[in-house]
Amino acid sequence: MDKDLKMGPVKYKTKPKGGSKCQTLCITFLVMYMIFFVPPVNGFFLKTCRISYNAAKCMQNQLQSVPQDIPPTVTGLDLSKNLISRIQPSNFTNLPVLTELALNQNKISQIDSFAFARLLSLQWLNLKKNKLVKLAKNVFHGLSNLTELRIDHNQIKFVSSTSFQSLTKLKTLDISYNKLQTTIDLHLILQYLPQLQELIANRNELQTFHSWELTNCSLELHTLHLSDNPLKDFRITADVFPNLTHLTIGNSCSKNTMKWNIHNNAFLSRVSSLDISGLHMGLDDMKSLLEAVNSSLTSLTMNRMKHNISTLVNISCTIPTMSTLRICGNKLELIKSDFLKLCVNVTELDLGTNNISDIETNAFASMKHLRILSLRYNRLSSVPSVIRKLQNLSKLDLKFNKITGVECQDFSNQTNLTELNLQNNSITALKTCAFNDLVQLQVLTLQYNKINDLNKAFQRYLPNLKYLHLNGNKLTSIKNEVFRGLRSLLNLSLHENQIKELYSDSFVGLRNLTEIQLMSNQITKQNLDTGAFNALVNLKRLDLAINHIKYTDSEALSQTPFFNLSHLEELSIATQHYREKSHLPCNFLKGLTNLLRFSARNTQIVYLDKDMFKYSPKLEKLDISSNDLGTLSPQLFSPIQNLKSLYISRTTLQSLDFLIDANLTNLQFLQARKNQYSVITEDVIQSLPSLGYVDFQGNSFMCDCDNAWFLNWTISSAQTQVFDAYNFVCNYPEDFKGTKLLDFNLTSCSVEIGFICFVSTTCMILCFMVTSFTYHFMRWQLYCAYYLFLAWLFDKKHQNKQAPHQYDAFISYNTHDEPWVIGELLPKLEGEQGWRLCLHHRDFEPGKPIIDNITDAIYRSRKTICVISRRYLESEWCSREVQTASFRLFDEQKDVLILVFLEDIPTYLLSPYHRMRKLLKKQTYLSWSRATEHPEVFWEKLRQALQTGDDLSVVNLQLSVIQTQ
């Protein structure tokens, strides 16, 4: 590890030599404690990267050099889209198991010799879209296991004779979009690549290709791409490509006419796939080219041709082995009857992007064996009638045309069709008989049309359909058992429609459906109440995101929407539309016993019942981010002990302490961004022993010793990655606002063991001396004082216990809060509820010392109500009242203290008030600021608190519902 991944536990300051025995014993005890009692939980962070599935992701971080804090265990490293300009041997010195490296889209202009020499395990390297002009000597030295190299889209003109010398196992090389000029440049590359199978050299500056310039090359090439080079002369005089099966040689940009010269047609006798798109060549040379592959060609691509395409089709269709023909981008507005008459052996035909608006009836008459037909990106206004005669057709692509409707006879006799694509047309409605003959159809794509009515198109036909895509249309309701005939359907896409009505019979018949997408519609909770999903007994994935599902309370539903979906594994109700507060019923997930993933992201939920997940015990991933929850109960997670991923970002959480008792021992991923907590405690992290990745980005951290353990844990090395920790910013205290959390100096938080031992020993000696001196000279006086104090204390306690209580409660408050006490508290407690209250401005005895008045008022009242505000905390007399009430609480062991907060006070502001913080840990309290929506609940809880007796546990149980967080 490098300097940013420091090893070892927290270091404590010790003296280098000559330490005392006390110091030695303390250190020994500390070490023993850390070994036997501190769990081995550690963390790590990367300054500019994150780890995901054993791969470091560092893309788009404005990096100018390769980061040096990458763990040596990663197998993948993505440095794409940065500003790196140079690669040096020192960049990759400690990545022994790295197999994939992405450096594409940087500004790399120089790669030093031996720059990758340490990457002995590398198999895949991407240097695409940089500024390389020259490949230096031994630039790829050491990459003996590399199988794929991509250096396309650079400006490479020069290649050293030893650049590729080490790449003996390379199988794929993409060097397209560079500035190589001759076959000799290719020779410098190919001579060391005995196992190369695919060479992509498109869009260079090659003007000639001569086989004799590839001397001493033992080539195993299967694929050669030379398209978009300004080739003028292509000559093969020897069998340099004995295994070549795929050749791409077209050029749609150059106006040069290429000369073709093959001495022996046997040299290309194994080529089965040929792409001559845009090739400018004499007709005789074109015939010679096609004759050279006459015995082996199965696939021919002739896009954007400059010759008369009809002539070329007639020539190519005489090749008996050719079965695939692609002629796109040739501006064929009309397909005539004689255009394809010689293509009797073609089984796959692509006529896409030709502006076709009409096809004559007999255009495909000779193509009896045609199985795949693509007419995508044309101008057809209806399904061509010629389709009906293609009885062996299995795949038909009509996407991106102008078809307005499907007639009953459009697909007649298409009993073998398995895939039909009508995406992005202008279909408005489906007729009942539209697909009546498509008995073998398995995939039907109708998305992004204008369909507003399905009629009965899916009620009787399409018995084998498995995938139906209807998204992006204008459907407003699903009713009348519209999908009853689709008994084999597995996947149904209905997202991005305008569906606002679902009925109990909406999905009847879809018993085998496993996945349905309904996001981005207008579905409401009333639609869920209809039981629309009851028929989907085998459903595994249901996406209801971005709808209008909103519940106003968390009360249990009489009929739950998913009670019949016992096989469902994934459910999403995430939304982005409304901003009104909502709830989720406590039994919303009832019936989902096999649910693994649940998302309720951005639904403005303000409360989750502790029994929410008791119906889904197998839950592994939970996303409740972007809600206004404020707090979470540990009991919420009790039923889902298998949880592995938890997303709680932007949920206004003020603490993560709920995780301590949540018992999430299997949690591996935690995302808790942009909340309101400022301290991460040791107990929180140690309660998650399986945690591998945590994201605390965007929180307002506190730069003080409360975060010392978290800081040390973050920069330690082990299993847990703390994402983006280097950019954590402090917001408290004011002096550190805006500074980096990891820049906080922990020196003041270190444990000075020697100093502690010195102070402790000195104090013990002084105490012993004072005690001895006092006992020797004043022991009789101490005896008398001791017995007098016991007598006074007994009398005082006896007097207080025997005297009847004069008041029900003493009100302790600051004068600045008197308007609330007089205007709100007094009318409610004395006026409506009938309690007797003691207030200092009316009930204190004139002329009596204030401290005596306070003591008498507290002991003559059954309870003491402290009305706490920021002014209260700063008041000296209020502090005395709290102190006296605390003494009574300790003395009598009765619940005599009630705390009422008039305003929310952050925990860090309570730090100076030790006694108040101590009380808050033991006493339950009420919050007036959080009771503004339900003040009647606040007064009822206060009445219950005044009415209770001495049992502390009962009172706490009653008040816990509305305590401040």
Automatic annotation (TrEMBL):
<dbReference type="InterPro" id="IPR003591">
    <property type="entry name" value="Leu-rich_rpt_typical-subtyp"/>
</dbReference>
<keyword id="KW-0812">Transmembrane</keyword>
<dbReference type="GO" id="GO:0006954">
    <property type="term" value="P:inflammatory response"/>
</dbReference>
<dbReference type="GO" id="GO:0007165">
    <property type="term" value="P:signal transduction"/>
</dbReference>
<feature type="domain" description="TIR">
    <location>
        <begin position="805"/>
        <end position="946"/>
    </location>
</feature>
<dbReference type="GO" id="GO:0038023">
    <property type="term" value="F:signaling receptor activity"/>
</dbReference>
<dbReference type="InterPro" id="IPR032675">
    <property type="entry name" value="LRR_dom_sf"/>
</dbReference>
<keyword id="KW-0391">Immunity</keyword>
<keyword id="KW-0433">Leucine-rich repeat</keyword>
<dbReference type="Pfam" id="PF01582">
    <property type="entry name" value="TIR"/>
</dbReference>
<keyword id="KW-0472">Membrane</keyword>
<protein>
    <submittedName>
        <fullName>Toll-like receptor 22</fullName>
    </submittedName>
</protein>
<keyword id="KW-0325">Glycoprotein</keyword>
<keyword id="KW-1133">Transmembrane helix</keyword>
<feature type="transmembrane region" description="Helical">
    <location>
        <begin position="753"/>
        <end position="770"/>
    </location>
</feature>
<dbReference type="GO" id="GO:0005886">
    <property type="term" value="C:plasma membrane"/>
</dbReference>
<dbReference type="InterPro" id="IPR000157">
    <property type="entry name" value="TIR_dom"/>
</dbReference>
<keyword id="KW-0399">Innate immunity</keyword>
<dbReference type="InterPro" id="IPR000483">
    <property type="entry name" value="Cys-rich_flank_reg_C"/>
</dbReference>
<dbReference type="InterPro" id="IPR035897">
    <property type="entry name" value="Toll_tir_struct_dom_sf"/>
</dbReference>
<dbReference type="InterPro" id="IPR001611">
    <property type="entry name" value="Leu-rich_rpt"/>
</dbReference>
<dbReference type="Pfam" id="PF13855">
    <property type="entry name" value="LRR_8"/>
</dbReference>
<comment type="similarity">
    <text>Belongs to the Toll-like receptor family.</text>
</comment>
<feature type="transmembrane region" description="Helical">
    <location>
        <begin position="21"/>
        <end position="41"/>
    </location>
</feature>
<keyword id="KW-0675">Receptor</keyword>
<keyword id="KW-0395">Inflammatory response</keyword>
<dbReference type="GO" id="GO:0045087">
    <property type="term" value="P:innate immune response"/>
</dbReference>
<keyword id="KW-0677">Repeat</keyword>
<keyword id="KW-0732">Signal</keyword>
